Amino acid sequence: MREKVGLIDGRDVHFGAVTFIQRFGDALDLNPHFHSLVLDGAYVVRHGRFEGFVQIAAPSDEDVAGIAVQVAKRVVRMLRRRGKVEDDEVTPVEDDGSMLLPCMAASVQRVGVVGEGEGLTLRRLGRRRDVESTRVAKRRCADVDGFSLHADVCVPARDRAQLERLCRYVARPAIASER
Question: Three-state DSSP class for 166?
Fold first, then answer.
C-alpha cells in the first residue's frame, strides 16, 4: 500500500506498508495475527518530482509499548461495538457442522483435537499472554493483555537478500509441508 500522508512545506509525503493477515500459529492453533512491513521513513515529492527518501528514527521501547496499548484498547472496543465481546467474554460461535468449531474450541482450551493427543492438554512453551499490564521483554517489543508488538527488525537500505528473507518470513504460511 502506498498512501499520501500529507503536505510538508508544499511537498507531498508518502509512506508504504504491506500487511499479511494470519489466522493460525505454527502449531495450527487459532492465533490471529498480522505481519507488517513498514517503511522507516517517507518519500517526498514536490510538483510531481521525487525529491528523496527521509528516514525517521527507530521507535523507542516506550513508543512501541504505547502503540501496543492503543491497539489492544481499540481492538477490544471494536469487538465490543460489534457484539463479539461482552464483559471480556467471547460470544458463542454457531456450529456449522464443520470441524472449524471443535478446532477453535480446542485451540482456545489448549487441548489436542485430533490424532494421538486428542483430548490431552497441550503444553504451552514460552511466556504467558494474559498479562494485565504492558511488558517489555526485548528491545522494541511489548506485550499488552494478549496483544504483542515486535518492532525491532530493520533491513539496511539496498540489502535485497535480507529484504527477501524478511518478506519470505512475514508471508509464510502457518505451517509448511517441509516441517
Answer: helix
Q: Is the pLDDT of residue 83 over 90?
A: no
CA 93-76-3 angle, 5° bins: 110
Distance CA 78, CA 72 (A): 10
Task: Please name the residue that has the C-alpha cell 494478549.
Answer: 146
Place of cell 510538483: 47
- Which grid coordinates belong to 62? 516506550
124: which residues sit within 8 A by CB, 6+ positions away? 110
Q: What percent of the chain has pLDDT over 70?
A: 65
Spell out where the chain has E strands.
Answer: 2-8, 11-24, 30-38, 41-46, 49-55, 85-86, 89-90, 141-144, 147-150
